Amino acid sequence: MQKQSNSFRRKTYITVMRLLMGISVSITCTLVFFLIGYVLWKGLPNVSWELLTTKPSYLSERIGILPDILNTVYIVAATLAFVLPLGVGAAIYLTEYAKSKKLVDMIEYAAETLSGIPSIIYGLVGMLFFCQFFGMKTSLLAGALTLVIMNLPTVMRTTQESLKTVPASFREGAFGLGAGKWRVIYTVVFPGCMDGIITGCILSIGRILGESAALLFTAGFAHALNGIMEGLGSAGATLTVALYVYAKENGEFGIAFAIAAILMILTVCINLWAALVGRYFQKGERYESCNGS
Prior knowledge:
Elements: H1 2-43, H2 49-53, H3 66-97, H4 101-115, H5 119-133, H6 140-165, H7 168-176, H8 181-192, H9 194-210, H10 213-218, H11 228-232, H12 239-249, H13 253-292
Helix pairs in contact: 1-13, 3-6, 3-9, 4-6, 5-6, 6-9, 7-8, 9-13, 12-13
């Protein structure tokens, strides 16, 4: 009798937990699809070829976001050019070279702390440090360097976790063949963790595209159409900053929703790209392991 009672309680508990998890999944999916659908429904009708390929003109009352698109590309490229070598290099040092566990723990704790700081604080520090102390003034380069500090923990931690997944037997086998430390890292460890590096890079791109608070302090919100070198040295608005300006300052909610729709499409594409890259490298590792066996 007691066994039947315990079995009934266990089945009831499992049923209730499955029901609660199903409700949670349903609510989450509903919110996600509602948000994406609402933004696309409000924004896509306002997206036009003229909007995407022209710059704003106050004389002809024309609104164009081509400078904002180019500024976004410039700041993404500049940020990745700095953050990838720093993040990947720091991860390699912490995983392969560092011998002091206390030093590694301290750096990892500092990286986790950096990832939890609000972006508005990064913007304030970037404005005081890069714009004023280094004399960069309000520019895309100052905004990119601020985003480097913001995204450095993401790249470093994802690369570090990927390096740890490479089996120690791979390293020992390469050392046994007479390979040096750097050659082992470059030829054995690096290819095995490439999926984590690319995933961290893609996640950083997504965060750069969605950042606005830090860039308002450091990059400004100008809509000038410049080349990459001239653009990095001058103020410029990215798509997220332009969305804020058009919605908050100008009251152009149609244009704001159009930019939001573009950003939403870019975010979805980046997430799909990250998933496809991860699957591609997982298939490659399985294929190599099968051939090796």
